[in-house]
Amino acid sequence: MKVILVNGSPHEKGCTFTALSEVAKTLNEEGVATQIFQIGAAPVSGCTDCGACFTLGRCVIDDKVNEFLALAKEADGFVFGSPVYYASANGSLTSFMDRVFFAGGSTFRLKPAAAVVSARRAGTTASFDQLNKYFAISEMPIVSSQYWNMVHGMEPEDVKKDLEGLQIMRTLGRNMAWLLKCKEAAAKAGVPLPEREEGTYTNFIR
Fold it and tell me: How far apart are CA 124 and CA 141, in angstroms?
């Protein structure tokens, strides 16, 4: 079993990375392999709604999005981490996730996912809600913790002093590992995945 943790911050070893590292450490202790995927500081283009990904299975803009999608096919679960700048997930991660979930198709269906947000002070709950919407529309079980998945601090050393925040990350890691093991046990017991109906799209403008 493997979980990919996406660091949506342009700072490779910043506060968001510190939170994700705590989740990864706990997953490793539970026997789950992890990989932290860095989006980096290079600009990430937003989705242009060209529709090409529906036939190509990847994005026509060949950047970090396609690199991630290639890895995502073999992953069993995901954690997406974002810093908070203006009371929402940061722009590069938002553009990244828009394109990833458009182009990813059924790659993410029924794979557990979680959001982690990091802020100096406020905007965390709005960002947390924003990220969870990607999972909900993709039929992904959303993994929770004992509180909303957030840490606080201006610098990584501040996050390390947020003892409750770090505990939330560890609980999240254990809950993710438990759910992955439940899925594995269900597969071994012959429990089939839920049947998927053909999509029905309704336009409310008549």
Answer: 21
Cβ pair 39, 89 in contact under 8 A:
no
Q: Which pair of tokens denotes residue 1?
A: 């079993």
Q: What is the pLDDT of residues 166-195, one digit of tens each?
A: 999 999 999 999 999 999 999 999 999 999
d(C-alpha 100, C-alpha 123), whole Å: 24
Question: What are the φ and ψ backbone dihedral angles of 79, each rounded to 5 degrees?
Answer: -130, 125
Q: What is the pLDDT of residues 101-146, one digit of tens each?
A: 999 989 999 999 999 999 999 999 999 999 999 999 999 999 999 9
C-beta of residue 65 within 8 angstroms of C-beta of residue 100: yes
